[in-house]
Amino acid sequence: MNRDWSRRAVLGGIGAVGLAGCTGEQEESVNGEADGFAPVTDEDASVQFEEVATENFEAELGVSFEMSAEGIEINPVGSAVEGEGYFVVIVNRDPIEEGEEIPFDDDVHHFQEGEREGEIESIDGLSEGEETRLVLQAADGDHRAYGLTDEVVLFEN
Q1: Predicted TM-score (pTM) of this structure
Q2: Total count of domains within the chain
Q3: By C-alpha distance, which of 65, 40, 67 is closest to 147?
């Protein structure tokens, strides 16, 4: 396993290098219950990358990882159920605000089958050793972001 990564805490929008992920503490959702979004209420809930390794995929450098969660049940996407969700990995972007819909684009990888392991086969700049930031975030069955995140930085400068 390649160990050229570090874990970074994201608190209040300011990144601080550290050895632990985000605390998983929740703030009140701006959207609240008016649109049916129910934030995770378990104060100890968290998501984290367990293992992260760079991998060669057909001449492209990618990454494989294991993900885990506490205080939230990870399941395949269905309807939004309180206390359940799935994992999303965001590349080189900030986490999505709690309650906001998570976009479907090239930098956002949805693991909608309830996967606890994943891989991204090609990440721009990773093969050149450029700093690459991965954000793990939980989402509900309607693809809205929970405020649970973790972050790792590969090849930190």
Answers
A1: 0.77
A2: 1
A3: 40
- Indicate which CATH number applies to the domain containing 111: 2.60.40
Residues in the chain: 157
Tell me the Ramachandran region of residue 50: left when phi exceeds 0, alpha when psi lies from -120 to 50, beta otherwise.
Answer: alpha
- Looking at residue 63, its amino acid is V
3-state secondary structure 64-123: EEEEEEECCEECCCCCCCCCEEEEEEEECCCCCCCCCECCCCCCEEEECCCCCEEEECCC
Helix (H, G, I), strand (E, B) or coil at 62: strand
Residue-wise pLDDT for 90-113, tens only, equals 999 999 999 999 999 999 999 999
pLDDT digits (tens, 9 = 90+) for 104-146: 999 999 999 999 999 999 888 887 788 999 999 999 999 999 9
Supply the range of the domain harboring residue 77. Answer: 5-154
Give the CA angle between residues 88, 139, 67 to the nearest 5°.
45
